Amino acid sequence: MDTPTPAWSPSLPEATGFEHRVVETPGLRTHLATIGEGEPVVLLHGFPQHWWQWHAIAPVIAAGGYRVICPDLRGAGWTVADDPRVERESRLRDLLALFDVLDIERAHLGAHDMGAITAMQLSYDHPERVHTALQLSVPPGFMTFSPKVIPGFRHLPRFIWHRPGASLRGIFSEEYLAHPISEATLEAHLAPMRRPDIDNAVRPLTRRMVLPEGMRMARGVYRSQRLRVPTLFVFGRRDRYWHQEVMGRVCRTPERYAERAEFAYVEGAAHFITDDAPAAVGDLALDWFARAA
């Protein structure tokens, strides 16, 4: 059910064409930004971002004839949780409840970074709810772990031991971006971190969701299952850690683990691919949703 729209605090960053609402599910008041009409596409943001991560991509997808839904996930953006605790599948349960309230039987799915964890859980556990999936900057759950992938997790300690009030500006560095972002863009991404509940969610999300899911991947949990949702895995060619050479080593035989898995690499983009190359991401999404459904 919808709840009265609050006075947004802090103010929402500007994005043309979006409608904003708050949807109430058990224990959660989820902020949604939506644009377009048609078959639903749900975009799950990464960290430390929120719905605005998709502000230049969602309109491109919407222009292709889709209704694009960008929720702020638990512990991010303008969404408010009654209980600050986080478990491995908290966001998955939130998303399923949101699908039900919005009468979404099945949707196309796009996800980046931490949002890909929830997208992966949905794809494996509830494939009947997903037409196709687009996974950005995160390797498949069925990848083979080796020393080659360790550098891809070097950012985690700063989040595991995050001190409330400590700035996260450093994550938007040249290590993870191919092109510098403006101060205004940085402020748009990080503004919700001024809320204590969002700032305090950094450690629980990392410790109780990211690490346990990473351990499941390392143990081969997803290699023992089959990914039935057609999924396109997309990486920036300037990603320092998840690049084509590494993916070729850890995902040599995707057909063994997935019904349909393809890989794409975007020029001039690094980890924050939605900032580096939003037009390319939008075009890849439209193409994949059309030909893989």
How would you describe this protein?
- With 293 residues, the protein is an alpha/beta fold.
- Helices cover 30% and strands 19% of the residues.
- The protein contains ten helices and ten strands.
- It is globular.
Summarize the structure.
The protein is of the alpha/beta class and 293 residues long.
Q: How many structural domains does the protein architecture include?
A: 1
Q: Main sheet?
A: 10 strands, mixed
Task: Determine the strand fraction and express it as a percent band.
Answer: 15-25%
Stretches with pLDDT under 50, minimum 5 residues: none
Q: Structural class, from secondary structure content?
A: alpha/beta
Shape: globular
Kindly report the name of the CATH homologous superfamily.
Alpha/Beta hydrolase fold, catalytic domain
Summarize the helix and strand pattern as letters: EEEEHEEHEHEHHHHEHEHH
Total number of beta strands: 10
Radius of gyration: 18 Å
CATH architecture title: 3-Layer(aba) Sandwich
What oligomeric state best describes the polypeptide chains here?
single chain
